[in-house]
Specification:
It is built from 5 helices and 19 strands. The protein is an alpha+beta fold. The chain has one domain: Porin (Beta Barrel), CATH 2.40.160.10. The radius of gyration is 27 Å and the shape is globular. The N terminus is likely disordered. Channel-forming protein essential for import of protein precursors into mitochondria.
């Protein structure tokens, strides 16, 4: 009996209840219709089967994974990595490169630490330049990223802070480079991408250049993304409550209208589990000015990626007559041989690079099997 009485006393009305009810009754005629309208609008969006479209920054990520811009190199390189721990992940890296006659030899030492919510990466090269990168995942919908570089070269030290918010049917990102705390100077980028149908997403990206308190310039580009139909079952059974599960489209097409009037369009298609193709078309429209005559050009780039059992091959061809390739051949899970080449027929130039990647570990074989780094014998 005493337990029941104490429970009723704890859950009974307080002295502030009449005042709270009075405040609620005052605002209900205004807030009630607004909340009901929002509820109906949210239910209507849920019934359309909208998906999470990703961020504007990763709009052409699939194309970048196929084309050679982020992969090709010239000269010689060697990457040596040592895995100290798998959970949490901790890895030390040594990178050596011997470039062409216009680029001297370089060395970089780096370290990577990662767990379920944090990612830390730092490095220092032979010139004393220090770089760092940190990602912190606060929730399935919010992630903060920080990048920095410290060097003795004037004007090349920088810090960049960004935050991504992934809503159920949209994504919003804010990025600031060398932000001024007191006067708001720096370069700021805001982007929004919203899904309007299961296949179509529209958005924009605004760049605010504020190098000095008296100078402020803004420019906005508009983006669109069209994909194949998502998997209906994945869209209706989200892995995170209130957030549709991500999906991998079999093909996607993007378009970006830049402030200068130039247009960039891309198309990516996954032909099979082992073959991807990507096409990129960029227009260059430049009016006559003191910097040079008017220019109206276009560049189309076609690339393909083939995944074999122990190798990955990328090939690329563009309308300017440039042909390139990149091969990553793994002889063992811990050793890979790299070959990259490029021929520019219009300029009569060529590039060639070879490299190796070696990965060692201080973990035992049983620990590597438990971490998924090796297949069980």
């Amino acid at each position: 009996m005493s337990y029941t009485a104490s429970s009723e006393k704890a859950t009974g009305p307080t002295a502030f209840a009449p005042y709270l009810d009075a405040v609620a009754n005052v605002f209900h005629p205004v807030a009630g219709p607004v909340m009901n309208t929002y509820g109906r609008f949210h239910g209507w969006k849920e019934s359309m089967g909208l998906v999470q479209p990703g961020t504007v920054e990763n709009l052409t990520r699939d194309v970048q994974q196929v084309h050679l811009a982020n992969w090709t190199f010239d000269g010689a390189r060697a990457d040596v990595a040592k895995v100290v721990s798998a959970n949490p992940a901790f890895q030390l890296t040594h990178s050596f490169s011997l470039g062409s006659t216009t680029r001297p030899a370089a060395y970089n030492f780096g370290a990577i630490f990662a767990n379920a919510s944090s990612f830390l990466q730092g490095g220092i090269d032979g010139t004393g330049t220090v770089t760092m990168r940190a990602n912190q995942t606060w929730s399935p919908t919010d992630i903060t990223k920080v990048q920095g570089q410290l060097t003795d070269k004037p004007g090349q030290s920088m810090v960049q802070i960004e935050h991504d918010h992934l809503g159920p049917h949209y994504s919003f990102s804010w990025k600031s480079m060398n932000p001024g705390v007191l006067d708001g100077t720096g370069i700021h980028i805001a982007s929004l991408l919203h899904s309007f149908s299961p296949r179509l997403s529209l958005g924009f990206e605004t760049v605010i250049q504020h190098p000095q308190p008296s100078i402020l310039e803004t420019s906005t580009s508009y983006v669109a993304k069209l994909t194949s139909l998502p998997n209906a079952l994945a869209a209706l059974t989200p892995s995170v409550p209130g957030q549709p599960a991500p999906f991998t489209p079999s093909w996607s097409a993007t378009a970006q209208l830049q402030p200068s009037g130039n247009i960039q369009t891309t198309y990516y298609q996954k032909l099979s589990d082992k073959v991807d193709v990507a096409l990129d078309l960029q227009t260059i429209v430049q009016p006559a000015s003191m910097l040079g005559p008017a220019k109206r050009e276009a560049l189309a780039t076609l690339g393909a990626k083939y995944d074999f059992r122990m190798a990955t091959f990328r090939g690329q061809l563009d309308s300017a007559g440039k042909i390139g390739m990149y091969l990553e051949q793994r002889f063992t899970p811990a050793f890979a041989f790299l070959v990259a080449g490029e021929i520019d027929h219009a300029k009569n130039t060529s590039k060639f690079g070879v490299g190796i990647m070696i990965e060692s570990s201080s973990m035992t074989q049983e620990e590597m099997i438990a971490a998924g780094m090796l297949a069980p014998a």
